Amino acid sequence: MESVPAIFIWLTPYILSVAAFVILLEQISYLKKKRSVPGPSFVLPFFGNVISLAWNPTSFWEVQSAMAKSSDVGFSVNYIIGRFIVFIRSSELSRKVFANVRPDAFHLVVYPFGRKLFGERNILYMTGQEHKDLRRSIAPNFTPKALSTYIELQQRIILKHMKSWIQMPESNTKPFPLRFLCRDMNLETSQNVFVGPYLSKESQKRFEVEYNLFAAGLTALPINLPGFAFRNAKVAVSRLVETLTVCVEDSKTKMKSGEAPACLVDFWMQEIVREAEQAREKQPPHTSSVELAGHLFDFLFASQDASTASLLWAVTLLDSHPEVLERVRKEVAGFWSPESDKLITADQLREMRYTEAVAKEVIRYRAPAAMIPHVAGEDFPLTDRYTIPKGAIVFPSVFESSFQGFVDPYRFDPDRFMEDRQEDRVYKKNYLSFGVGAHQCVGQRYAINHLVLFIGMFTSLFDFKRYRSDGCDEIEYLPAIYPRDGCKVVVSLRCLS
Predict the structure, then answer these.
(1) Strand 481-483 relative to strand 393-396: parallel, antiparallel, unpaired?
(2) Which secondary-structure segment (H or E) carries 176?
């Protein structure tokens, strides 16, 4: 009887032959999908180019962009952990992907394991009439009347946090990163704007803990076992939705009594209550408290990461463009002063046209959600010459679109959004920061207002200076794009005399 080592030695050539054959088939499959599109001619078995992506995401996507520029097709391809990927640089082709989110074309992904974390009923993954009905029910949340209510809530939280920053031991002399400070400010702002009086102080603290657990699980491997980040995130989402369900029930009761809305959930429930009264016997879709709480959580989540990134880029870009900073300060001073007890009104905010132009240019120049991943549910003809294969992960680049079409696109120039130029209208097809089509961001006006208020108050309250270090302004994917150093600044109170 032969020994085990001898049998293994005898089998080794066959095992190696099978492995080589599988690798060859994988390579042939990749090249068949790639065709003549720019992309690597050879990829590592199974892993593909995941090492370069994990090691330096910024460099990886820059290479993909360079490959896409190298031909007239407007996109490039690659291979990552067994998945064929398509990176789209062309604005026209990116819009084509956004416009075809449906079961037989593209499925929105956003986060790698988002469906397992958020659930299939999340608004991100809805399509068709169901999705249209839900967006229609959301519309009352962002009317001018509703937005004017939020503006006051936003300012009070922004001011509260900024005043706490100046009390920090590091202020005046030592640099400190703004990233987590802005994140905490945004989370409290969202809590107050979205569910206002329905969260107690104790509930707000628990909410913050649960939300941080959720955020930590967003990019974790989907290991649904106790002790793992993904499991903690799933449990946290369940608890957050439970908390928000109570808020929804309380708001419904308040709106049924005829009281005036005081926050986003009130404006939403006011419309829900009205529809329910009209329907009488049959309950309208998307009106159960648990489902509404789930969608309310979607709003909270959507308003965090990208918004925080934009605040940091605003500080970074204003520091490096003192002439823009001076114009912002001069405009804001005509409406608001830190020494005043008054807040900026909705009408005054609309008059702050240059500051709004700065906010729009920040979002163009450093689009926080740089890419919006989709999966091809079926083979899709992207161009006359190329069909994206089923199962491919497609990355339309909002970031790359922002540097196409616009006049001198690589220059930070807020004037492009002023009345005499209106490049956001002239080059509308390239301004994709808030998406296009059925899944275009429904809260974009709220997001712009928040950025304008932050810019106006931060620049009026503080003298600030970026702490410069090697690579501090380089892009870091987290997964929104941030300044690599978390935006380290030295701040001090301005002398307004």
Answers:
(1) unpaired
(2) strand 176-177
Region for residue 201 given its phi and psi (left: phi exceeds 0; alpha: psi -120 to 50; beta: otherwise): alpha
Peptide bond into 197 cis (omega under 30): no
Q: How far apart are CA 248 and CA 297, in angstroms?
A: 11
CB 444 within 8 A of CB 434: yes
Is the dihedral angle over the CA atoms 49, 309, 212, 210 positive or is it negative? negative
- Whole-number Cα distances in Å, 2 to 5, 10, 15, 198, 251: 8, 10, 18, 75, 77
Q: Is 167 helix (H, G, I), strand (E, B) or coil?
A: coil
Largest CA distance in the chain: 97
Q: How far apart, in whole angstroms, are the C-alpha atoms of residue 113 and residue 2?
A: 48
Q: Where are the alpha helices (DSSP H) in 257-321?
A: 264-279, 289-302, 305-320
User: What count of other Cβ atoms lies within 10 Å of the Cβ of residue 221?
Assistant: 11
What does the block give as tokens for 122? 């999340």
Cβ atoms of residues 466 and 484 within 8 Å = no
> Is the confidence at residue 191, as pLDDT, over 90?
yes
Segments of 370-446 assigned E as strands:
374-376, 380-381, 387-388, 393-396
- Tell whether the torsion through CA atoms of 385, 49, 110 and 305 is positive or negative: negative
Q: Is residue 365 within 8 Å of 313, Cβ to Cβ?
A: yes
Q: By C-alpha distance, which of 464, 165, 171 is closest to 329?
A: 464
Torsion of CA 162, 168, 174, 179, to 10 degrees: -50
pLDDT, averaged across the chain:
91
DSSP letter at 41? S
User: Which helix H or strand E contains 132, and what residues bound it?
Assistant: helix 128-138
Pseudo-torsion of CA 130, 136, 138, 143, nearest 10°? 170
- Residue 397: DSSP 8-state: B
* DSSP single-letter state for residue 302: H
Q: Which helix (H) or strand (E) holds 492?
A: strand 488-493
Q: 94-129 b/e with 16+ CB inside 10 Å = b?
A: bbbbbebbeeebbbbbbbbbbbebbeebbbbbbbee
Pairing assessment for the beta strands 83-88 and 393-396 based on DSSP bridges: parallel
What sections of 220-284 are H helices per DSSP?
229-256, 264-279
CA 385 to chain centre: 32
Span 96-108, average pLDDT: 93
CB atoms within 10 A of CB 65: 18
Q: What is the pLDDT of residues 382-415, one digit of tens each?
A: 999 999 999 999 999 999 999 999 999 999 999 9
